[in-house]
From TrEMBL:
Residues 348-425 form the DUF7586 domain. The keyword DNA-binding does not apply. Its EC number is 3.-.-.-. It holds the Pfam family Beta-lactamase. PANTHER family: D-ALANYL-D-ALANINE CARBOXYPEPTIDASE (PTHR46825:SF7), D-ALANYL-D-ALANINE-CARBOXYPEPTIDASE/ENDOPEPTIDASE AMPH (PTHR46825). This is Serine hydrolase domain-containing protein. The lineage of its organism: Bacteria, Bacillati, Actinomycetota, Actinomycetes, Streptosporangiales.
Length: 443
């Protein structure tokens, strides 16, 4: 199973083999996804007496959250809920009902990380009604919206929300709306053969200890699922944009927008709506990590490159944390993408006349054309507010990003009106309707 060249495959396999050997992992699998298909798979170690394959199951832990989040976004797109809705509007009877769905999705609700139970990852779960009854004031650790604070409990609540709104269980809704449409038929709540056993590796000896595995019940949406490298590669393709109609591209892009920062002042990692985000080695990645007793897994997607990467391991701890980035580096070094060929494209003469130099007061900007009648406004020299705009049916343009995201650009013959800011061809052009009135330039 490889679409990469022999030299690339060898380099990728060596990096995987080094991780498995030096980190003493019982078994380790990894895959690269490109253009929506698995381009490379590798497996090292043993599951029983066999090497792991793309069909070997591993527990994926919190990657489950990203899948549950997709069902929540489908409900939002259908108009069943709004992300600003308080939880109690759809899930009454809990003491944390004032928290919003969007805050729970982005881990900004201030809710406790772990449930008020025994160590939930290692013990049988409790029913949802029991968990809801236990949640109260002590489980609120921060003012809602104040900061990022990862919460497994938040996704337990979201799973219960999904189940009630769909009139079924979160798992059945996920199966019908996400897993089956994506062909992820080997992603299940409990292990099926062939599957890896979860192990803890002794820190000072080459021996292992089997870790427990249970049905997490109410906490299931936070980390219950098992999957395979084959299925997780399909999930990476989905996150890269191959959605198979499960979500509109715009909704998936919204999930990838950063809302919270989870690593302090360095700001290299964050969280969107159910998706972890990472800025690593010049890449903007979206996906999720996962850990449960005896298992580690990670899946990342780079939508700009239409590339994904994943690993699955049956160890509680010990990996370097650099494997996925290193695999992407190897792919880029050995088989970098060629840029798309430039080709001339027709342009509306009226829009073509708008291109070129404009001024916000004395500061020069350049307006250029994008596909489908889009516009880009960028400061000369690169320092200042830059945004892209998409054409609207009423003749205006809507900001897509940057400072002017969501704002309206209106075009007049002698000026641009960008949410009351006036851009003119000449600095403070006296012919334009400039608020305050331009004076004379002084020597």
């Amino acid at each position: 199973m490889s679409q990469v060249g022999q030299a690339t495959a060898r380099a990728l396999l060596r990096r995987l083999a080094v991780e498995q050997a030096e980190c003493r992992v019982p078994s380790l699998t990894a895959a690269i996804v490109r253009d929506g298909r698995t381009a490379w798979f590798g497996g090292r170690g043993r599951v029983g007496d066999q090497q792991p394959t793309p069909a070997t199951q591993y527990r994926i832990g919190s990657i489950t959250k990203s899948m549950v989040a997709v069902v929540v976004m489908r409900l939002r797109d259908e108009g069943v809920l709004d992300l600003n809705d308080p939880l109690e509007r759809h899930l009454p009877g809990t003491q944390v009902g004032h928290l919003t769905i969007g805050q729970l999705m982005s881990h900004t609700a201030g809710l406790t990380a772990e449930p008020p139970t025994d160590w939930w990852e290692r013990t049988p779960g409790i029913p949802a009604h029991d968990l809801l009854d236990r949640l109260g004031g002590p489980e609120l650790k921060h003012r809602p919206g104040r900061r990022f604070h990862y919460s497994n409990v938040g996704f337990a609540l979201l799973g219960e929300l999904v189940g009630r709104l769909r009139g079924t269980t979160w798992l059945k809704a996920l199966r019908a709306e996400v897993l089956d449409p994506l062909g992820m038929h080997d992603t299940t709540p409990r292990p099926r053969p062939p599957h890896a056993t979860g192990y803890a590796v002794h820190p000072y000896a080459d021996v292992v200890l089997a870790e427990p595995e249970h049905d997490a019940d109410a906490m299931g949406p936070a980390g219950q699922l098992w999957s395979t490298p084959h299925d997780l590669a399909r999930w990476a393709a989905f996150l890269s944009g191959h959605t198979s109609g499960v979500l509109p591209a715009a909704t998936l892009a919204e999930m990838r927008e950063p809302i919270g920062v989870d690593d302090g002042h360095t700001w290299t990692g964050g969280f969107g709506l159910g998706l972890q985000l990472s800025r690593a080695r010049g890449r903007r990645l979206a996906g999720h990590t996962g850990s449960m007793p005896g298992f580690l897994a990670t899946v990342w997607a780079d939508p700009d490159e239409d590339t994904g990467v994943l690993f699955m391991a049956n160890t509680t701890s010990g990996l370097t944390g650099a494997l996925t980035d290193d695999l992407l580096d190897i792919l880029h070094e050995y088989e970098p993408r060629l840029p798309d060929e430039w080709q001339p494209a027709p342009a509306d003469p009226g829009l073509l006349a708008l291109t070129g130099l404009w001024h916000w007061g004395p500061k020069p900007y350049v307006l250029s054309l994008l596909p489908d009648r889009g516009l880009a406004l960028e400061p000369v020299g690169g320092r200042g507010r830059a945004s892209r705009f998409v054409a609207q049916d009423d003749g205006t343009w809507l900001g897509l990003d940057g400072y002017y995201a969501g704002e309206t650009l209106k075009v007049a013959p002698d000026h641009l009106d960008l949410n009351t800011f006036i851009f003119t061809r000449d600095p403070y052009d006296p012919a334009a309707p400039l608020p305050g009135g331009p004076g004379d330039w002084l020597a």
